[in-house]
Amino acid sequence: MALLTPKDLININKQLQEADSTVQRVTGLDIKGICKALYGTSPSSEKVGIVPVTSGNGIIGNFSASLHAITQYFGFESFVTDMPDVSGYYEAVRDGAEIILMADDYTFLAHNLKNGKMANNQPCTGIIYAEIASRYLKAYSKDVFVVGLGKVGFPGAAHLVQKGFRVYGYDPDENLIQRAVSNLGVIPFNPEKPKKFSIIFEATPCANTIPESVLSENCVLSTPGIPCAISEELQTKYDVQLVAEPLGIGTVSMLYSVL
Ligand code: 2YC
Ligand code: MG
Fold first, then answer.
1. Which of 28, 35, 72, 159 has its CA 20 to 30 A from that of 132?
2. What order of strands is seen across the sheet that includes strand 143-147?
3. Which CATH architecture has domain 123-246?
4. What is the β-pairing status of strands 215-222 and 241-243?
5. In angstroms, rounded to a whole number, what is the distance separating the alpha carbons of residues 223 and 130?
6. Antiparallel, parallel or unpaired: β 77-80 and 47-51
7. Rounded CA separation 215/192 (Å)
8. For the segment 155-171, what is each residue's pLDDT rounded down to a tens digit?
9. Are 139 and 176 in contact (CB under 8 A)?
10. Rounded to the nearest whole angstrom, what is the distance from the C-alpha of residue 210 to the centroid of ligand 2?
11. 60 lines ligand 1 (CB under 6 A)
12. Are 161 and 137 within 8 A, CB to CB?
């Protein structure tokens, strides 16, 4: 999993506000509205405990503080524990946390201690970015281009197929393409025969993964991927509606999925 850096999380509130207004413009719903539509749940002031974790590459500067800002932005009461790891978990439960948020280098989880529901950041991020893409008001067809069919991309592609979209998929790893073709009926995208799309969902840890030949004027690109899938130049040239934010959209998807 690509690890976030403190640089990615600079001014997370501003990044979230900008992403929220783009989502509103693209889909007619704000991010909360997308979560309600996706999970059919709504918060009733659950208290969230955020536990820093020192394992592996250790604490990422601003990660816990960003989760605090994100949960506040979406109206949850939340606190970051003073201690990390097990001592932090103990502190969170002792001080009344109903939902625990914590992440090591491999898993970022949300656990609702009241109803036992648990969420993993990877599928929750894929599904909400796919849902946002699928609700593009100006889409001219039900064809969607999905780039990245791994732990984040595959659940997103599955969500789009389930919603009746015709998914053309690409991944540098041939095995992941075969998995999506055989398990989801995804159409393998053939770079030799490019086609233009109005809806694109990308989930890779690589930059510039979207070829210009698939971009249509004013298309939507919904992507949690860091670094960004297209250059500023291409974004401007095709007036691409870009929904991209490093942590908040995936986190609120996790929270609504455990309510
Ligand atoms: O500060 C801490 O508590 C660290 N243990 C946090 C590690 C998070 C590692 N995961 C990531 O950087 C992200 C995920 C949040 C989503 C994609 N990569
Ligand atoms: Mg990317």
1. 72
2. 187-188, 166-170, 143-147, 197-202, 215-222, 241-243
3. 3-Layer(aba) Sandwich (3.40)
4. parallel
5. 9
6. parallel
7. 15
8. 999 999 999 999 999 99
9. no
10. 9
11. yes
12. no
> How much distance in Å is there from the Cα of 241 to the middle of ligand 2?
16
- For residue 104, give the ligand 1 atom closest to its CA: 5
Closest atom of ligand 1 to 250 CA is 16
Angle (CA) 108 113 116, round 5°: 85
User: Do the domains at 41-116 and 123-246 have one common CATH topology?
Assistant: yes
Give 40's Cβ-side CA count (13 Å radius): 0
Answer yes or no: are the C-beta atoms of 257 and 124 closer than 8 Å.
yes
The strand order across the sheet containing 77-80 reads 77-80, 47-51, 99-103, 108-112, 118-120
Provide the 10 A C-beta neighbour count for residue 237: 13
Strand partners, 81: none
Evaluate whether 258 touches 115 at the Cβ level (below 8 Å): yes
Measure the CA–CA gap between 224 and 31, rounded to whole angstroms. 14
> Domain limits of the chain?
41-116, 123-246
Other Cβ atoms closer than 10 A to 80: 20
In the CATH scheme, what is the code of domain 41-116? 3.40.50.12150
Instruction: Summarize pLDDT for 192-251 with one digit per residue, the tens.
Output: 998 999 999 999 999 999 999 999 999 999 999 999 999 999 999 999 999 999 999 999
